[in-house]
């Protein structure tokens, strides 16, 4: 065995976030592995025998276990087989001095990911660790990607320069480095999931998974298996969404519609940061940031007995109320332009001109369906090749000039404030900080 190679090598980056358990009855081998792994991974722990290793798995989660096959009392393969039954989420590398076919077949049946022959060099074990972790993360990413593709969810940016959205951004930046649960509230279509994703991207978990769960869409008969995982007939653990999201963020949407069975189970997970897969004897440690969202009145749901009070207080540590589009109307023009460009590309159809008159009508509309309604209107208009009757325009100025022209920006803003004041020009002037005569003069010039 040769000594460790430079820590700043090709293996450092792919291994940097991993937690590894080394199991070997020989202190020299344990120390050798610890010495070459410790500079490159997040955490390395050691166990001298199977019993000590089992206790460590009960206490914490490991991404990878490196285990010697020949040990007193219980072989490495026997130990791995036992752990699969108890609940075992780590991948495994088996160390062995005997490379016979029988051992290889037994290792595959036990679910071992790779094995290395003793004696080995530092770069050989590092290569095996890197390969095993790559496969582990690839399986996780593929599972989550397939789920997102099937859900047909579209993502976007948290766009807008309005004061209301600026206040939300300020809170997101303040909360990003903290583990605190956050409850996003607001009407449907206000961008609660978008804000939650933005919070995740600002945090130190940005490179880890962001997993969404629609509480209203999970059927009662598969809640436990889908969320917590299940030990299948071959004693292999099929991880649930909580385990797949480990290290990242779990976003639970429509929590007001969460079934009672899930409320009880989730409360336990939030309190202990542990999850027990169906059929497993062991609880597995979690490292998750929990985010929640609802468009319902949770306090009323608690009062009506539809939502547990203890769970409500658990998830409502910090609330961010997403403003409706009518309260951030100055963002409408920017959003409309973005959606027009997006749908022209994704649908492969020509975009429509956003002329001054159309933009004015959009700005003055109340948008009860919020951003989602605006997005749907743009998509529908691109498909049909025209805006609906209430939004058609005929102004000569369109495109960037209509969006950015100061006079038109001013017109849209003043008329929107007048709408908010039910046409009361004195009140509108007070809100805008200008004289009543200025409002009269502006409106007269637009009506001319």
SSE-based structural type: alpha/beta
Count of discrete alpha- or pi-helical segments spanning 4 or more residues: 20
Mean pLDDT: 85
What percentage of amino acids are in beta strands? 5-15%
Overall outline:
elongated
How widely separated are the two ends? 90 Å
Query: What radius of gyration results from the CA coordinates?
Result: 29 Å
Which residues form runs of ≥5 with pLDDT under 50?
Answer: 1-8
Read across the widest sheet, the strand sequence of neighbours is: 2-1-3-4-5
Largest β sheet strand count, sense and barrel closure: 5 strands, parallel
> Fraction of residues in helices?
40-55%
Number of β-strand runs: 14
Plain-language structure description:
The chain is an alpha/beta fold and 448 residues long. Helix content is 48%, strand content 12%. It is built from 20 helices and 14 strands. The protein has helices at 12-15, 27-37, 50-59, 76-86, 101-110, 122-151, 163-175, 192-202, 223-228, 241-244, 260-272, 298-303, 309-315, 332-346, 356-364, 370-384, 399-404, 406-420, 425-432, 436-447; strands at 19-23, 43-47, 64-68, 91-96, 114-117, 182-185, 210-214, 230-231, 237-238, 249-253, 274-275, 284-285, 289-294, 319-321. Strand 8 and strand 9 form a beta hairpin. The longest helix is centred in the N-terminal third of the chain and has 30 residues, at 122-151. The protein starts with 11 loop residues before the first helix and ends with a helix. Residues 1-8 have low confidence and may be disordered.
């Amino acid at each position: 065995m040769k000594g460790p190679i430079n820590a700043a090598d090709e293996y450092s980056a792919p291994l940097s976030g991993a937690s590894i358990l080394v199991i070997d009855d020989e202190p020299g081998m344990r120390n050798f592995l610890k010495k070459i792994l410790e500079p490159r991974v997040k955490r390395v722990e050691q166990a001298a025998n199977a019993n000590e290793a089992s206790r460590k798995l009960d206490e914490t989660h490991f991404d990878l276990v490196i285990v010697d096959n020949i040990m007193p009392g219980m072989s490495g393969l026997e130990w791995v087989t036992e752990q699969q039954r108890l609940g075992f989420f780590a991948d495994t590398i088996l160390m062995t001095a005997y490379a016979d076919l029988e051992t290889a077949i037994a290792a595959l049946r036990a679910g071992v990911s790779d094995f290395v022959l003793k004696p080995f060099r530092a770069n050989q074990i590092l290569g095996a660790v890197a390969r095993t972790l790559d496969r582990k993360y690839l399986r996780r990413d593929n599972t989550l990607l397939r789920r997102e593709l099937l859900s047909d969810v579209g993502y976007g940016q948290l766009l807008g320069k309005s004061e209301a959205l600026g206040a939300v951004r300020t809170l997101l930046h303040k909360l990003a480095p903290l583990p605190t649960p956050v409850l996003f509230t607001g009407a449907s279509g206000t961008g609660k999931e978008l804000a939650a994703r933005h919070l995740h991207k600002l945090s130190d978990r940005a490179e880890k998974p962001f997993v969404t769960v629609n509480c209203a869409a999970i059927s009662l008969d598969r809640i436990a298996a889908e969320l917590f995982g299940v030990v299948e007939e071959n004693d292999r653990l099929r991880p649930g969404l909580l385990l797949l999201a480990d290290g990242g963020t779990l976003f639970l949407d429509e929590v007001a519609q969460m079934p009672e069975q899930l409320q009880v189970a989730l409360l336990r997970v939030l309190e202990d940061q542990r999850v027990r897969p169906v059929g497993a004897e062991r609880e597995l440690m979690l490292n998750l940031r929990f985010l929640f969202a609802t468009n319902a009145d949770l306090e009323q749901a608690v009062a009506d007995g539809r939502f547990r009070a203890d769970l409500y207080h658990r998830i409502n540590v910090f609330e961010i109320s997403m403003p409706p589009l009518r309260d951030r109307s100055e963002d409408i023009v920017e959003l409309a332009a973005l959606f027009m460009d997006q749908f022209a590309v994704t649908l492969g159809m020509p975009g429509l001109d956003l002329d001054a008159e159309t933009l004015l009508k959009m700005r003055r509309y109340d948008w009860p369906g919020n951003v989602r309604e605006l997005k749907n209107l743009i998509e529908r208009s691109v498909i049909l090749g025209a805006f609906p009757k209430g939004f058609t325009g005929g102004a000569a100025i369109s495109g960037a000039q209509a969006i950015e022209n100061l006079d038109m920006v001013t017109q849209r803003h003043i008329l929107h404030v007048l709408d908010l004041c039910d046409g009361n020009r004195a009140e509108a002037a007070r809100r805008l900080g200008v004289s009543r005569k200025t409002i009269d003069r502006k409106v007269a010039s637009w009506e001319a």
